[in-house]
Amino acid sequence: MKQLLLTCVLLMTAGYAMAKGEASYPVQTKNTTLLLEGAVGEPLKFIYYGPTPASLSEIYDSGTALRRNAYPTLGNDAPQSHALQVKHVDGNMSLELVVDGVAQSGTEDVKITEITLKDKVYPFTVKLFYKAYVKNDVIETWAEYFHTEQGDVALQKFASAFMPLRAGDHYLTHLHGTWGNEQNMVEELLTRGSKVIKNRDGVRNTQTDNPSFMITIDGKPSETKGNVIAGTLVWTGPYKLEFDYNSNNNPYVYESTPVFEIVMGMNDEASEYYLPRTTAFKTPEMVLTYSTEGKGGASRNLHRWARDYKVINGHKLRDILINSWEGVYFDVNQEGMDEMMRDFASIGGELFVMDDGWFGDKYPRDNDVTSLGDWTVAKKKLPGGIEGLTQSASKHGVKFGIWIEPEMTNLKSELYEKHPDWIICQDNREPVPARGGTQLVLDMSNPKVQDFVFSVVDNLMTKHPEIAFIKWDANMPLMNYGSMYLPRDRQSHLYVEYHRGFNSVMERIRAKYPNVVMQACASGGGRVNYGYMQHFDEFWTSDDTDAHQRLLIQWGTLNFFPAMGMASHVSTVPNHLSQRVVPLKFRFDVAMTGRLGMEMLPKDMTATEREYAIRAIADYKSIRPLVQQGDLYKLVSPYENNQYASLMYVAPDKDRAVLFAYRTLYMSSYPLFRFVLDGLDPDKNYRLSEISRMDKDKPALAQQDKIFSGRFLMNQGLTLPVNSVYGSAVVELTEVK
Ligand code: GLA
Questions:
Q1: Around Cβ 189, how many Cβ atoms within 10 Å?
Q2: Which candidate in 150, 419, 569, 713 could, as Cys together with 597 as Cys, close a disulfide (CB 3.0–4.6 Å)?
Q3: Does the predicted TM-score (pTM) go above 0.90?
């Protein structure tokens, strides 16, 4: 039960006074403390982020206190990295912020510390917020600016957060990729100099990089051991994460050893923002967690927090769906859709999603060069309209979902003919189209466009309230930097206003339709982050559905994002992108580690495969709460081991678990590989049972129905029947009392 604890009690800074650290403000979760310090009239200092000590004096007495500006600004500390840089109305570019007051609000579970900083000379205020999610060990932080100068103050840099880190052997884990290969995990030593992770796509902010990272405190990264800070930015637009080794450690100014300065927030490039008097500007939230159990602990903290607080409908189990894209591509018609629904329902499927190709009356969408924006049914393909499809769905006993790409249009479309001024484009240049050579982005900074985009969903949902799922795609970057809506002297607001517009539309949609399940897709995995997940139930992980490749993509993704949101589909072989052929069981066993779905024609399965698919889908239903709501333990990384991969999900009270094991390369069958388990209760006994069995009468598992202690499994482990290339096994563990 959430209990209202305090509502905005203004605390005198002395109220926090601690030994040595006069005016210290500890932001605390169950196991961690982020410590700030600064008396009224003094600058705010970042002292410490780590496990909660027995007493705060340990931080000061041990020499661990960092004492760096908590939110550095350009001004009297010019050589340092900055979180905020402004140009005042009179042209002065400096800020000197000091503490003005501290307030606390929230509940026992979620506590907000609000620190008000004021400039010593200009009427410019910065509020820093630290929201502690106590039981998840997560701290969310952001800033808000406000001024009463006589004109607009130019914001030139406006980061969400700054964090100093004592310089040492820090390894950075982050994600990198490209279309069809998103969220690949990269691990590297942070060397001297700076490392920047950024995005300027404008529309899809995770196709190449992701605003999420982990950083080790004490050397090489490990899944199970060591101190790790993880961070992830809640923002749908361009971002910048800077890791800068401060070589300007001036001994007259800084007391402590050299630090890495980490600056996290929106990307300020081409984004100078003119803030009017008395208008607040809020940065996106930066989410931080600290783990003493390696990367695995950090991932679990983020997953739990995401399910509890961030992901829409975070505790609702997701349906098993089939998506029509790889099955028929643009070749959508009533008979084909009906047949797919029937076939999917007959193997236990729950939801059918019709992808691209269903719309465009004047210009039917037969390929990717026309029709975006014309969200009416292509009558020749679907004479019975969407109603015909929802009727089919109800006849077959599956739910119905639909694909849209509402932020986009094509040169050849009725929408563009009517509203050529709605696209992102400079008003005196020809637009550069992207996908299909004709696609363009609509200008989401324009309120009329926002209303139109809202109406795309609103019309569909009003006419067809049976729609249970919407796949929202976005397949091109913001190519033409310019808005025909924003005034000439405010063009640099484009990225910020595009995404404010997008987010306000999403808020309107969610206020009216909180229960329709929504998937964020952007050319595959281009929208995998919490900026999106606060509006969307899940994300399309990648257009690459090759199970082998997915092991790597999903491993990277799971570092920061929960399995319940990770759409993972079984597709046909040879895989349409990689041409790889892997057994259906391997494909299912990989897809089952996320939100299971299919992306093929069920009728293309052989009778034996179909019989297996029925079993696999039924088995997934039984382990669904474990996968979608349990704790992830990664055992064997496909990035480190070129033959095997393995992970497991464990129920919160450790009475049940499911283990997934894979073999991707056959080099030698001896010695047999041992899979050492994790996350179990050492003192509990577990019965093992193989699920997702190819042959229902013959488990391949030698340990079938045998009982082991958690201690033995986590110490000695198991050999599993994954002896050949693309062998895989799924084992359920159930506590025996
Ligand atoms: C993108 C998506 C695919 C599919 C197509 C449709 O590429 O990632 O899943 O929806 O668009 O055009």
A1: 11
A2: 569
A3: yes
Closest ligand 1 atom to residue 475 Cα is 1
Q: Which residues line ligand 1 (CB under 6 A)?
A: 325, 355-356, 368, 403, 473, 475, 521, 523-524, 540, 543
CA distance 137 to 543: 33
Q: Is 463 helix (H, G, I), strand (E, B) or coil?
A: helix
Q: Give Rg (Cα) of the chain.
A: 27
3-class secondary structure for 183-236?
EEEEEEECCCCEEEEECCCCCCCCCCEEEEEEEECCECCCCCCECEEEEEEECC
- Distance CA(571)–CA(578), nearest Å, equals 12
| Ligand 1, atom 2: closest residue by C-alpha | 523
* Centre of ligand 1 from the C-alpha of residue 545, in Å: 12
- Nearest Cα to Cα of residue 586 among 634, 549, 534: 549
Cα four-point dihedral sign 534, 536, 537, 538: negative
pLDDT band at residue 519 under the 50/70/90 scheme:
very high
Which of 608, 607, 609 has the alpha carbon at shortest distance from 584? 609
Mean pLDDT of all residues in 439-443: 98
Burial 329-351 (b: 16+ CB within 10 A, else e): ebebbeebbbbbbbbbbebbbbb
What Cα–Cα distance (Å) separates residue 517 from each residue in 319, 395, 510, 536?
Answer: 9, 21, 10, 7
- Distance, CA 473 to ligand 1 centroid (Å)? 7
Ligand 1 atom nearest 403 alpha carbon: 10
Task: Compute the distance from residue 598 Cα to the ligand 1 centre, in Å.
Answer: 14
Question: What torsion, rounded to 10 degrees, do the Cα atoms 431, 524, 554, 175 define?
Answer: 0
The pLDDT score that the predictor gives to residue 25 is 96
Quote the ligand 1 centre to 549 CA distance (angstroms): 18
Q: Do the beta carbons of residue 95 and residue 101 sit within 8 Å?
A: no
Distance CA 306, CA 429 (A): 43
Instruction: Take residue 735 and report the two structure tokens written for it.
Output: 């506590």
Q: How far is the CA of 318 from the centre of ligand 1 (A)?
A: 20
- Best residue among 322, 405, 475 to mutate for probing ligand 1's pocket (most ligand atoms within 8 Å of CB) is 475
Which residue has the CA at smallest separation from atom 1 of ligand 1?
A: 523
Count of positions (residues) in the chain: 737
pLDDT score recorded for residue 76:
86
